[in-house]
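W.,

You were right to be curious about this one. When I first looked at the sequence I had no strong expectations either way, so I just let the prediction run and decided to look at it fresh. Below is the sequence, 932 residues in total, followed by the output.
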Amino acid sequence: MMISNAEASTPQRFSISCLTGQRDAAELELDIKKDNSILILPSPSRYSVKRPKTKEVVANEFVGIVDQTGIFYCHASQGTSPTRNLVTVTLINNYGKGLFVPAHLTVTTNRGDTVHLAMQVLSSQRRDVTWKYNGNYFYMTHWGDVSNSTTVLTLEDVSNVNEGIYSAGFVGDNCASKKWGADCDKDCPECLNGGVCHDSDGDCICPPGFMGMRCETACREGMFGRNCQEWCRSELDCVGLRFCLADPYGCSCASGWSGNHCNRSCHRDMYGADCRLSCRCKNGGVCNRFSGCQCPTGWRGQNCEKSDRAPQILDMASSLEWNLNSSPKILCSATGNPLPSHTSIELRKLDSSASRTTMDSNKSTAQFDIPRLSIEHAGLWECRVSTNGGQDSRKFNLTPPCPSTPPKLLEKRSKQLVVMPVDSYRGDGPIDSTKLLYKPMETGDSWSSIIVYSREPITLMNLKPSTRYHVRVQLTRPGEGGEGTLGPEAIMETDCPEPTVRPEIDFSSLEGRNATVRWLLPGNAGGAVGAASGFLVQLFRPSPSGEKLREETTLLNVLSTKFYNLQYHQDYTVVVRLLNCGSLGPASKPYHFRINSQGPSSPRNVLALPLSVSAVQVKWQPPEDPNGGIVKYIIEYQPVGQGSLHPWVDTDDGNKTAKDVTALNGSTLYQFRVRAFSKVPGEWSKFVHARTQGDGFQDFTPTTQGVGGRPGSEGYQLVMAVVGSVTVTCVTILLALLALFCIRKTLLNRRRSFPYQSGSGEETILQFNSGTLTLTRRPKPAAEPLTYPILEWDDIKFEEVIGEGNFGQVIKAMIKKDGVKMSAAIKMLKEFASENDHRDFAGELEVLCKLGQHPNIINLIGACENRGYLYIAIEYAPYGNLLDFLRKSRVLETDPAFAKEHGTASTLTSQQLLQFAVDVATGMHYLSDKQV
């Protein structure tokens, strides 16, 4: 229905609402549009249409009077079929200050009737009146025919061709009075309280304020809608609102109101929409302008004239179970006074009549025979009973079972798909069996199927790898013809082919609670590994639980992984398998290891504070993992740089977290470490350093506060000596770094001009041949072979990536050279490196070969060529580069008390810093001698 606030004073306050009472309103498309073909304007009307609720669409924000004046339609549509428009409602809003006022906005009539369309003429001018039909000229009324300021247009024997828009809306009915249907051969029910019989479906269209199958029930004041579920906005009062319903009802005011602006209440003994109905109450009934006659107890009917009992349907389930292609017999029983007759009971889905009716003393039972049930019969059915006492209906649903969602993929492999066939379904159960149908997408193969009698997951076997399949489900109920329709389709794809090579775990190494596992591939694997993309390493608890704890993936060229923070006194099992997309190859033989604790974990936050010339106090916090009761702590100490024995002291018990170490030498730098002791010794902490006081520092207090007093001359000289040595060290390091920068800049400029040229400027061509690096000078044909140490590919075990650039990467590896295992840094180019990158990389190997061996540079260990790629192994630097190492040694990041005591910003001694500078200078001097 459509509602407009007819008494709005301005266009901005004017609004039109369109509401639907359908239960599936969310699936409907509601829209309000203005007809621009009858009332033609120079520019489109300006207003907005919004949908604030699921069941309501509103047009408002009109700019001017012209925008709100005209003919508006509310369209309710569903889907995209040609018959998508379910219903269209028309609303006419006239100009409030016009010269004509229609007697009725909507005139409802029947085919063959004579209709008088009346207009009240507000102007006193004596001019002819022109009537238009759907915007076109239709008739001219002479001014002399205007009587009592009213002009009348008479239409005789109306039919469908007369339906349309006149001065006031005209809506025609396709059938004669009280008839409906495609051939107008069916009788309409008696629509009460101003309701109009719909010529298509025979239902009563109730005026606003009434509901029911025959509009027999009045809504509460201010309520309207199919089930009286809507209410008017202004204090539950529908004054000033005009309602337009589906044809052939048209437009009217709400029940109890009339007038051009729907703001006049009904006169005495009048009620209903537009106050068109009169009360003829009997038997003590009282007229109400909103609902009509209000009957006393014992009486009913529109005029309180009936005392009989309305019919009521009995013994009918709300849901009936039938299979397709069956021939069910539907029974519908009803009672009432009088009893329903043979023709009073009908089945509303097939519009079928009862095959036979049995009338007992207190009820009538009708039987309906359906010869063959098809899928088109699915949906809502209704048994309707109608007598003089009233009507009753009972609805029930029939839907054959059908999955509402497509099958769900649970797991996929190269040749298997694990599918959950049914999550939910529509229709009537119970489900007897489930059929899963599948076929490949790219081929013309027919459907294959598998039938199960449970709702458990189904495994499809013997499929093709990397293939997409159509998968659908069909449900079946018990009994003949119980098969439902095919459900929604899903597309599922099998995984990549599974690798066939089984890795072999070589060995593992334990570092506290961390474990490193290494593996290798069989020597006869060959090209079978090419189908894999990496390794999957899985860590399990041992049997019987076999719980999977962790899972790691590595690249195909990385043959080790590390598990951190494992638990003490636990057994673990590791398996490794090749991985290709999501497909897994066969697992390696399980490898077992155990994390045995040697005691508690290391103490935390160890701190050493000088107390005197011969004493240092060591403090710490208990370990995170005591691993049993701590009996005592052991403190080990020794002078830094001396190879003397490691003396130690013990605490009295395990509760003390501080210990004074005495009998030390004065002005000596010591290193301390602590470990806890339970049944067995625990892990050592990291070393901390502290220097005992000298003779000039007896009054020194080692705290984080400022130092009080003036130091003696001897102490002052010591401080100055330390500061001077640190200054000399820093200057030496800066000079060494400057020299390194200049040499590197010269090298880069030389390399920028042309990579690796000979002394004559001729290009160097690099060729690998069994451990020799052949240097060919163009245009000279002679080759200069350069040998390098050869590493076997099987002797290299990659561990982890430690550095990466745009075109290359560095991987830490364990290599075997001359039977000795050692750590190395492997440099390699990435796959997309250019030819120039490969030439530069080979040139780097040439430089390393010419350099030879020296203790103060990173030396070449060897090189390996595999599958056309060059791998260079150099010495591994566990502490990284010198700059980062010096930064990490700053006391500001470790022990501020040490910096305050010694006036330095490093935990390293001046001797160590000077040694670093000497080593750097020695290495740079060696590189200079080699002209690098």
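Here's what jumped out at me. The CA atoms of residues 4 and 728 lie 95 Å apart. And, maybe more interesting for your project: The chain has a mean pLDDT of 79.

Coffee later to discuss?

I.
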